[in-house]
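Hi L.,

You mentioned the student needs an example of a multi-chain input paired with its predicted structure. This one should do, with 258 residues in total across all chains.
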Amino acid sequence: MIRTLIKLKTELIRGKNRNFLWMFLHEFSYAEFSSAIEMLQAAKLNYDIKISKNLIDHALDEYNHTKLMRSIISKYTEDNPDIFRNVRFCPNHTIKKGYVDPSKFLFQKYGIERFFIFVGINEQNASKIFTKLRNRCTDTLRKIDSKSGDQQSYAYNVTLASDVIGKIIRDEENHENFSLIYASRNVKKWKFLFFLLWERILNNIRHFCASNSTVNKWVAASIYLIVITLIIPFRFAFSIEPPRMNNLVSKENSDLML
Ligand SMILES: [Fe+2]
Ligand SMILES: [Fe+2]
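Structure written out for the whole complex:
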């Protein structure tokens, strides 16, 4: 889910393991595929034909991003079959991993106004993450010693990834512009500003928590502590009746013994 993505992004940008690039693209391909599904659902539920057309174009872009990412991963796994098992794409995992909730799609959950603001902010965020990722690819390429064969094929895959990411960044910027321009024109100004700020705050909190495991542990520990403290006065409700200590050797119970 989003936490996995942010964690992978943080690890990739800190950059210790070369497989992170492929794991990152693998996880993001699910996110892109899920966005495509959300956009199609929104297009189906929308009554304005122009908006629906735009949402379908957005969905096609997202499907294309998935395809592009999968193509780099396939290229990489051709040379590294040992990691292939970990990066196999199963479309229904978008539900299992929690990217898509078929009982309530984002458009139904948020309504048209908030939906476009939510999409705009998330696209903005995605293009920032992809820009960092592309910079990381450039850094990696600079460090690669292309004399050995293995390094050469690695450099080729990283260059491929960098080019594809560049194309994806341009699309994400278009999606961001369309969504935020639409929202700014069609949503009341105070509501637009409020949701814009709200989505930015939520996004920052999610990223901060997911990329700082120590903060995460402390937040979880504080929640546990609060819950336990609140439960203490009601502990009688959870008390379990002590087990009956049957004395099987006693005269009364001896009949039950074989
Ligand atoms: Fe995308
Ligand atoms: Fe997008």
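You could point out the following to them. The radius of gyration is 26 Å. Residues 2-212 form a domain with the Ferritin fold (CATH 1.20.1260).

Best wishes,
N.
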